[in-house]
Write a structure and sequence with these properties.
- The protein has one domain: YaeB-like (Elongation Factor Tu (Ef-tu), domain 3, Beta Barrel).
- 2% of the residues lie in helices and 32% in strands.
- Strands 3-4-9-8-5-10 form a six-stranded antiparallel barrel. The chain has a two-stranded antiparallel sheet with strand order 1-2.
- Strand 1 and strand 2 form a beta hairpin.
- It is globular.
Length: 161
C-alpha cells in the first residue's frame, strides 16, 4: 500500500494480472509522438537518462508555451519490455528485487518516465538532453517539471545504500 496525499492506494496481486470479475477498466492511451534517439538496443541505452549527454528529438503536436520550460517529464511506452517479469536485478546492487521496487523496464505495465532538459523547440520537435529511451519508442505524455513540486530531497530507496 502507498500513502499519497491522504489517499490510500492498494496494490492488488491477482493471477492473471487482470481479474475475470469485475471487468478490467479499459485504458486507451493515445500516442502523441515517437522518440528518436541514438540508442538502437536496450544495451545501448543508459540505465538512467540523467547519466546521458546524448541529445535527442521528440515529435509531437501541442507545444504551445513549452519553450518556457527548462526541464520536462516524459512518459513513454516500453514497447519491447517483458510484461511477465515481477523480479529484477537493478544495475546498482545486482541483487534481485520486486519489480515495483526498481526501475526495470520489464513490468506488467511497462511505462517509462524520465526528466529531460529542454534544449530547444523547432518545427514540432523537442530537442532534449538526458533521454534513456530507445529509437522508435512511443511517447505517451509530456509534463513540465516543477522543482518545488517534483523534487523530494530526502526520498530514499531502502535497498540502495
Amino acid at each position: 500500500m502507498f500513502l499519497y496525499q491522504s489517499t490510500l492506494i492498494k496494490v492488488l496481486y491477482r493471477k492473471p494480472f487482470f481479474p475475470s470479475t469485475p471487468k478490467p477498466l479499459a485504458m486507451n492511451l493515445k500516442q502523441i509522438g515517437v522518440i528518436h534517439s541514438p540508442f538502437k538496443t536496450r544495451g545501448d541505452a543508459p540505465f538512467q537518462g540523467r547519466h546521458s549527454e546524448e541529445v535527442c528529438e521528440e515529435f509531437l503536436p501541442g507545444l504551445s508555451d513549452v519553450e518556457g520550460c527548462t526541464h520536462l517529464i516524459h512518459l513513454h511506452l516500453l514497447d519491447r519490455a517483458d510484461r511477465t517479469m515481477l523480479k529484477a536485478f537493478p544495475p546498482y546492487d545486482g541483487k534481485e528485487h520486486g519489480v515495483f521496487a526498481t526501475r526495470s523496464p520489464n513490468r506488467p505495465n511497462p511505462i517509462g518516465v524520465g526528466v529531460v532538459e529542454l534544449l530547444g523547440v523547432s518545427g514540432g520537435k523537442l530537442k532534449v538532453r538526458g533521454l534513456d529511451a530507445m529509437e522508435g519508442t512511443p511517447l505517451i505524455d509530456i509534463k513540465p517539471y516543477f522543482s518545488e513540486v517534483d523534487s523530494i530531497p530526502n526520498a530514499a530507496v531502502g535497498w540502495r545504500k
